[in-house]
Amino acid sequence: MEEDKGCFHLASFIDQKDRLRISRVPVVQELARQGLHYLPDKFIKLRPDQPTTPSLVHEVNTFPSINMAKLRLGSEPEGRAHELAKLASGAQEWGMFLITDHGMPADVLYDVKDVVKEFFGLSFEEKKASVGSYANVDNMGYGRNFVKSEDQPLDWIDRLTMKAAPEGATEGLHVWPQKPNNFRQAIEKYVKESRKVFNDLLEALAESFSLERHVFVHYFHHKDSEVNVRVNYYPPCPRPDLALGITPHTDASALTLLMEFDTTGGLQVLRDRKWVAVPWPRDTLLVNVGDILEIMSNGRLKSPWHRVVTQMDADRFSIALFYNPPSRAEIEPVRINATMEHEVYKKVALRDYLQHFYKINPTSEKQAIDFAKVQ
């Protein structure tokens, strides 16, 4: 039905015989607009009797929350030491934490929300005319990625991806929406403010482990470090018990910064082999550790295995910023001294790691990072 209307994304992949294949992926937003009362087979991922279904997820009352104002240099010493200890504990135990008092102007955040909602308020035809589509699994634009076969169960999501840094990274590419006309300006302002938060956190994380403040952040030169932007839209789903918004995964980043609106809820993290619903109050931001920082910290910090579930009666938007060194960089575990403790990870070229990550994902468990482990 949806394909007859022309409401589909094109996703390319290489099949088992090394042939280029093109898959027609139904547009989730258009399926939701049709008011479906059933879930199309392409999107069924779960069974109600599985122990990992959303209805059997664990709830927690406490979750790490970091006050960035207390964390920054110049704040009251005793309070700052306490905040550094909270940061180390939260990052180690969960691999993710909330941040408050981050210093980003409220109007910058409001503008991002406005342009995202305006873009997804357009008709499918207007969105397609406004921005280009994914060409392959790690490309940018409006559409779907991580599609590897025709029979792969699909996520209940539509998304938009672009590279916001370094400057000129998308020159000549039709990946920034032309509607609304201030979309790019709003996102780039947000990215500019977010880089300050990223750098402050990288320095504070190093300090919280009694390392030199620069050991992580020195990889992130302001002119050529990379920020990828991924806008996720999860429309109402007729069967949340059978679908996932995003398949379980880790992030191929050093740090990821997440903002969500209008509806909270949906993010889950695997902890002690149980899915835990992440409590995420409105108007707070969330940060999680990515594979790259796990490598650079020699496994002191671990990228969390996480997923997103769907909701029946609500729209949910989130924006993820993925912060990385330049793709040409070589990353390696931090050396505390000449006789560093046992090395879990080795030096890797970031470009090679990212190519490996996109090639094998999605996977059923945390597998991509094995590429960087010492054998």
Overview features:
single chain; 375 residues; alpha+beta; Jelly Rolls; four-stranded antiparallel beta sheet; 16 strands; oxidoreductase activity; oxidoreductase
How would you sum up this structure, described in words?
With 375 residues, the protein is an alpha+beta fold. It has a single domain (8-341), classed as B-lactam Antibiotic, Isopenicillin N Synthase, Chain (Jelly Rolls). The protein has nine helices and 16 strands. The strands form four sheets. An eight-stranded mixed beta sheet has the order 3-4-12-9-14-7-6-5. Strands 8-13-10-11 form a four-stranded antiparallel beta sheet, with no helix packed on it. It starts with 7 loop residues before the first strand and ends in a 15-residue tail after the last helix. The mean pLDDT is 89.
Quick structural overview:
Belongs to the iron/ascorbate-dependent oxidoreductase family. With 375 residues, the chain is α+β, with helices and mostly antiparallel strands.
> Helix segment count?
9
- CATH fold category name: Jelly Rolls
C-alpha-based Rg, rounded: 20 Å
β-strand amount: 15-25%
Terminal CA distance: 50 Å
Large-scale geometry: globular
Give me the CATH architecture, please: Sandwich
Unreliable stretches covering 5 or more consecutive residues: none
How many domains make up the 3D coordinates? 1
User: How can the largest sheet be summarized?
Assistant: 8 strands, mixed
Give the fraction of residues assigned to helices: 25-40%
What is the strand tally? 16
> Structural class, please?
alpha+beta
CATH superfamily: B-lactam Antibiotic, Isopenicillin N Synthase, Chain
Give the ordered list of helices and strands.
EEHEHHEHHEEHHEEEEEEHEEEEH
Strand neighbour order, sheet with most strands: 3-4-12-9-14-7-6-5
What is the arithmetic mean of pLDDT? 89
CATH level-1 class? Mainly Beta
